[in-house]
Amino acid sequence: MARPSVLVYHADRRYAELVRVPKRGVSVRIAATPSEAAGAIADTEILYAWKFPAPLYARAGRLKWLQVMGAGVDWALVPELPPHVQVTRAPGVFGPWMAEYVVAWCSWVTQRMKVYRDAQRQRRWDDHVLPDRLGGKTVTIVGLGDIGRDIARAARALGMRVLGVSRRGRPVREATRMYPVAAMARALREADFVVLLLPLTPETRGIIGADALSVMKSSAWLINIARGAVVNESALMEALEQRRIAGAVLDVFDREPLPPSHPLWKMDNVVVTPHISGPSTADAIAPVFNDNLARYLAGRPLRHVVDRRQGY
Ligand code: OXD
């Protein structure tokens, strides 16, 4: 019987090097570009990939399983992907990074880091500005799944109150209170920091628009580490320009890379980071893939399977 064929689609060869080929064996091929992938996809049963080109799924007649290398799966759940293909995520890999990102940028706000650095550049002893505390502040996490729980734990360790929003608002141990999406405004209203973590689906596209922004405190900060398109960008820019919210830390954008001419770059109440809040590394994700590969070959159910209908 032919050995199942794994295609690793990434420019960093380490992803392929870390595939632990089990005793029964698999053949591992590497593709770094769409044209290399085009030559290999027809024989592929298992795809281990980041942003695989959707048009190539038309040739993926043997494909049974796609392991996503990143945190989000929206690029994978395209109509071109044959319906029987199982898609798996990698929980546990990105949450710790993103928790540090969120705590760091919340602290940047409360510790007034920009103010002190600016004063330093001017050799100014600015002791009339005092830092604030994260302790006692409220963070609302919109899209509270496994990554959100990591963030919630880190926030609680600093004495922050955590509110969460999820599709149904089911209780989560790490959050003081959960709200269903329909009641999101109540959770936004109380927040000092709103962290966006929701998957991009037809229901979440543009969910943070003028209405959602209008209920936030004028002192609140929005942190988007989900997808640019969950926010209505023009409504956000208007809210920021008019100081209806204090500021935004944005790691994701409608268009990436953010074009140099984009006005967000220059806004003094906006922090732009280049989609790095939860970096993928071959070493971190390999154990998740290898564990599932062993299960696949043993005919056991895969772990972390994405519900393709729900979109996460
Ligand atoms: C993502 C990632 O999916 O960076 O956005 O992993």
Could you explain the architecture of this structure?
The structure is a single chain. The chain folds into 2 domains: 5-92 and 280-297, NAD(P)-binding Rossmann-like Domain (Rossmann fold); 95-272, 3-Layer(aba) Sandwich (Rossmann fold), CATH 3.40.50. Strand 1, helix 1 (14-17) and strand 2 (27-31) form a beta-alpha-beta unit. The protein has helices at 14-17, 34-40, 95-110, 113-121, 146-157, 184-189, 210-215, 233-241, 282-297, and strands at 5-9, 27-31, 46-49, 65-68, 86-88, 138-142, 161-166, 177-180, 193-196, 221-224, 247-250, 270-272. The radius of gyration is 21 Å and the shape is elongated. The model has no long low-confidence stretch (mean pLDDT 97). It is α/β, with parallel strands linked by helices and 312 residues long. A 7-stranded parallel beta sheet has the order 8-7-6-9-10-11-12. It has a 5-stranded parallel beta sheet with strand order 2-1-3-4-5, covered by helices on one side. The chain is built from 9 helices and 12 strands. Oxalic acid binds at residues 70-72, 275, 278, 280.
How many strands? Answer: 12
Assembly type: single chain
N- to C-terminal separation? 34 Å
Number of domains: 2
CATH class of the largest domain: Alpha Beta
